[in-house]
Amino acid sequence: MEEDILLKHREVWNKKKILRDIYEEWYRMIIADLSKVEGPTVELGAGSGNFKEFYPQAISADIEKRDWIDMSFDAHEMPFEDSSVANIVKIDVLHHLADPVGFLHEASRVLKKGGRLIMLEPFPSLFSRIVYKLFHPEPFIYDVDYFNHKPSMEKHPWDSNQAIPYLIFYKHLDKFDKVFGHTFKIIKKEKMSFILYPASGGFENPSMIPETLITIFKGIEKAVSPLRSLVAFRTYINIERA
């Protein structure tokens, strides 16, 4: 089943220009924010392998083996030496992890001083909650404290809780600071992606706008950015190893 999903995503990627345009902008933002310390950049949960197209020197990694993936391993136990990695990039991965706090400890182990963990994840704004509930199968479960939670490592890799990034970096930020304040500093935390991505249909649904209107919708995206707390679909988080 996993192979079918990833192959489907590769097919959708090749067919949907609007999706490639959106991700290309995100990729440029991520690449510009990478740490300049020496060492490899590793993309975890590389999935259909699109980030590596834009940043070929990245090591693509996923829990599932695929021909287009460089390495296969569980993100909770990475096969890297202590303080050996310059950057970890994760796009829609944190909310799939069985033990996201345990992963953050593991990331702090492998990252060099000044190395960065960059994540792009779902965000539950007032508007996005409605759209996610109607059109996206993955749940938002808010009544979990991952800082005081015994994870089940038997969890299927595709199971998820889209609320995980919100819980760790917004609702329970005080607990993040208490546990990781000496380890990580937050370089950037932004709410983003308002109209264009949901209109694109993502990887699972057909696009709601023709390619000829992409430029217009990009203009609308910028116009509504002051309302980001109400309409954002994503959060962009960049934290640095202290």
Structure characterization notes:
- The structure is a single chain.
- By secondary structure, the protein is α/β, with parallel strands linked by helices.
- It has a single domain (2-241), classed as 3-Layer(aba) Sandwich (Rossmann fold), CATH 3.40.50.
- It is 38% helix and 19% strand.
- It contains ten helices and seven strands.
- The protein has helices at 2-15, 17-33, 51-54, 100-110, 126-135, 164-171, 173-180, 196-200, 214-223, 228-231, and strands at residues 41-44, 59-62, 71-72, 85-91, 111-122, 184-192, 234-241.
- It has a seven-stranded mixed β-sheet.
- Strand 1, helix 3 and strand 2 (59-62) form a beta-alpha-beta unit.
- The longest helix is centred in the N-terminal third of the chain and has 17 residues, at 17-33.
- The model has no long low-confidence stretch (mean pLDDT 91).
Secondary structure: elements and pairs:
Blueprint (H helix, E strand, L loop, with lengths): L1 H14 L1 H17 L7 E4 L6 H4 L4 E4 L8 E2 L12 E7 L8 H11 E12 L3 H10 L28 H8 L1 H8 L3 E9 L3 H5 L13 H10 L4 H4 L2 E8 L1
Parallel strand pairs: 1-2, 1-4, 2-3, 4-5
Antiparallel strand pairs: 5-7, 6-7
Helix pairs in contact: 6-7
